[in-house]
């Protein structure tokens, strides 16, 4: 066990060294005066690798993922980590996949200005509560962070861009959907602006015990962070604010072109929405959650049902020609920033295209690209890889 872990870790280090660019952090000290701060009150941060050549006036912004915190206890547990404090963040971040600067690994966006916005608010960049509890020192200011960093990037040259993409993974993918039109409004009308969300299409679904765990969880997040005023009004005018954290309830009203990358068997959603904490007291799903190949016939039947429900929720995108999606049947989560999934000889393919090629064609408008994979286990192109970043995307469950 230890030997295999060390072997995998060595392979990971080799991967980072050969296929990732290390980009220095920028701490945005000026944001503090605007009240745009992390959970612990430290300034927000981002990493920027400047574009060159034909990409010098094009920008891709990636919002980092990392779950959420839904109560004081769970937010306190994040406060002294990189997900709650810029003081705890690494000074360098590896850029890989869609963030790579190597055309062999990232043909379309390698020479764009590429920005990773660090996630330290626990509310998908939607929170804005003025009061600070003196007992905890917690700040819920995610929406202010988003605004402050976007203003900084505009000043750094993004306001003169020709192309701009807002993207994100997991909780950052959800933030991409929720902020997509806000991002569009920051830029002149002549700028080509689009959004793509990776593994951020979380669905409104009961767990295996029949309880609406994720509905209550999202409601608690929205309430704690004061997110309601920063969620799309077209949704909040009709539904409870907590329900407007679900993409299926807001996506159709988004005016900006939007692309969805998601696994129909997204392993984060399987582990945290379908088999939510407390829903499997005997641990019958432990092996299945670890690897879909370990699932029993009955568990696979339930997973196939979950896939159907996911595809039904995807209908919330609506019929607009500006919508695109890449829904494969891999047991994965966050594929655009993992080189093995994004673009390579052995990367997953859907209709004979990698994720990078599908996003390229959709962005360039050479292919609308709206494709859904056949049900598991028919797709033999899925990457077999241990998820080394699973802990990054865990919810802060009680």
UniProtKB/TrEMBL annotation:
Has keyword Cell wall biogenesis/degradation?
A: yes
List keywords of the entry alphabetically: Cell wall, Cell wall biogenesis/degradation, Hydrolase, Secreted, Signal
Q: Where in the cell is it found?
A: Secreted, Cell wall
Query: Mainly resides where?
Result: secreted
Q: Which sequence ranges form a coiled-coil region, renumbered to this chain?
A: none
The keyword Membrane appears for this protein = no
The EC number(s) attached to this protein equal: 3.1.1.-
Q: Where is the signal peptide?
A: 1-20
What is the similarity comment for this entry? Belongs to the pectinacetylesterase family.
Relate the protein's function as given in its record: Hydrolyzes acetyl esters in homogalacturonan regions of pectin. In type I primary cell wall, galacturonic acid residues of pectin can be acetylated at the O-2 and O-3 positions. Decreasing the degree of acetylation of pectin gels in vitro alters their physical properties.
Protein name per UniProt: Pectin acetylesterase
From what organism does this protein derive? Solanum pennellii
């Amino acid at each position: 066990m230890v030997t295999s872990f060390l072997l995998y870790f060595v392979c990971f280090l080799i991967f980072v060294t050969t296929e990732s660019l290390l980009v220095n952090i920028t701490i945005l000290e000026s944001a503090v005066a605007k009240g745009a701060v992390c959970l612990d009150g430290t300034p927000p941060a981002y990493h920027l690798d400047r574009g060159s050549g034909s990409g010098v006036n094009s920008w891709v912004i990636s919002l980092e993922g990392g779950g959420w915190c839904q109560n004081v206890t769970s937010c306190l547990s994040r406060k002294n980590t990189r997900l709650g404090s810029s003081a705890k963040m690494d000074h360098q971040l590896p850029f890989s996949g869609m963030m790579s600067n190597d055309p062999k690994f990232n043909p379309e966006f390698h020479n764009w200005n590429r920005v990773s916005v660090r996630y330290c608010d626990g509310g998908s960049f939607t929170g804005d509560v003025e009061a600070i509890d003196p007992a905890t020192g917690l700040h819920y200011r995610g929406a202010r962070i988003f605004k402050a960093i976007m203003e900084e990037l505009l000043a750094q040259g993004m306001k003169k861009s020709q192309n701009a993409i807002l993207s994100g993974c997991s909780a950052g993918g959800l933030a991409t959907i929720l902020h997509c039109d806000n991002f569009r409004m920051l830029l002149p009308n002549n700028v080509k602006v689009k959004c793509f969300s990776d593994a951020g299409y979380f669905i409104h679904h009961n767990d295996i015990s029949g309880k609406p765990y994720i509905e209550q969880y999202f409601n608690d997040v929205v309430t704690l962070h004061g997110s309601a005023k920063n969620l799309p009004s077209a949704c909040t005018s009709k539904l409870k604010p907590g329900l407007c954290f679900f993409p299926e309830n807001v996506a159709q009203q988004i005016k900006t072109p939007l692309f969805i990358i998601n696994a129909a068997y997204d392993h984060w959603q399987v582990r945290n929405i379908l088999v939510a904490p407390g829903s499997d007291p005997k641990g019958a799903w432990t092996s299945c959650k670890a690897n879909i190949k370990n699932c029993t016939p009955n568990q696979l039947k339930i997973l196939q049902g979950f896939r159907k429900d996911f595809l039904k929720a995807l209908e919330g995108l609506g019929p607009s020609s500006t919508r695109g999606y890449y829904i494969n049947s891999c047991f994965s989560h966050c594929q655009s920033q993992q080189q093995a999934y994004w673009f390579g000889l052995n990367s997953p393919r859907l209709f004979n295209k990698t994720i990078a090629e599908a996003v390229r064609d959709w962005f360039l408008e050479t292919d609308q690209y709206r494709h859904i994979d056949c049900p598991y286990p028919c797709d033999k192109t899925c990457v077999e890889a241990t998820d080394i970043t699973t802990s990054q995307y865990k919810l802060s469950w009680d």
